[in-house]
Design goal:
It is a single chain. With 194 residues, the protein is an alpha/beta fold. The protein has a single domain, classed as Maf protein (Alpha-Beta Complex). Helix 1 packs across helix 5 and helix 4 packs across helix 5. The longest helix is centred in the N-terminal third of the chain and has 16 residues. The structure holds inosinic acid. The site of inosinic acid has 17 residues, from strand 3 and helix 3. Inosinic acid binds next to strand 3 and helix 3.
Length: 194
């Protein structure tokens, strides 16, 4: 099929978000769609290298045009933590809830609540690697709000909005989010190649 891209993730939330962001311009295949049941390594210490490691791993396995993303929540008062360790901040087998609890505990009594979600998308297209970045600035609330989204969404209030990422309808989050911006940059780049 034309305009087909394989998304190197096993995260169903992300897959849904990316499909909504990209719409009809590209057909996104998941690893499940190609019956690839595999753990993707993510062992680097920057989000750039992690995105590249994941995309390269899947490209080496499949030889297909593919992309991967990696995100870090960088909190100013915590010197950029959890950053590249956002997924496993509270420990190896931790849940989103555990991670949020740890961040809220560490932020207790801290006045400076500024935080950034930074996403890197790594595209491997016809064997060449390209990186795209998206950022969204906001604050960490003192308590969770909302049931949507995933990860740290209930505690992240983007600047200029009065709903957390977990309270927003998906189209709104995707329109302003770190991942939405990075993916949109990738799609614009691909359109220049057509
Ligand atoms: P990943 O490396 O891109 O999977 O992201 C690492 C971690 O960052 C995830 O496990 C989530 O906890 C968090 N994260 C990534 N994207 C988002 C988002 O859009 N909202 C909230 N948390 C996110």
């Amino acid at each position: 099929m034309e305009n087909e891209l394989l998304f190197a993730t096993n995260n169903a939330h992300k897959l849904r978000e990316i499909q909504e962001i990209i719409g009809d311009s590209y057909h996104i295949l998941s690893l499940k769609d190609i019956q690839l049941d595999i753990e993707i390594p993510e062992t680097s210490d920057t989000i750039e290298d992690n995105a590249s490691q994941k995309a390269q791993f899947i490209f080496d396995k499949t030889g297909r045009n593919c992309f991967a993303d990696d995100t870090g929540l960088e909190i100013e008062a915590l010197d950029g933590r959890p950053g590249v360790y956002s997924a496993r901040y509270a420990g190896e087998e931790c849940s989103f809830e555990d991670n949020m609890r740890k961040v809220l505990e560490e932020m207790d009594q801290i006045q400076n609540r500024k935080a950034i979600f930074r996403c890197i998308v790594c595209l491997i297209f016809e064997g060449n690697e390209y990186l795209f970045e998206g950022r969204v600035e906001g604050v960490i609330l003192p308590a969770k709000r909302g049931k949507g989204g995933f990860g740290y969404d209930p505690v992240f209030l983007p600047d200029g909005f009065d709903q957390t990422f977990a309270e927003m309808p998906p189209y709104l989050k995707n329109g302003i989010s770190h991942r939405g911006k990075a993916i949109t940059r990738m799609i614009r780049f691909l359109e220049t190649l057509e």
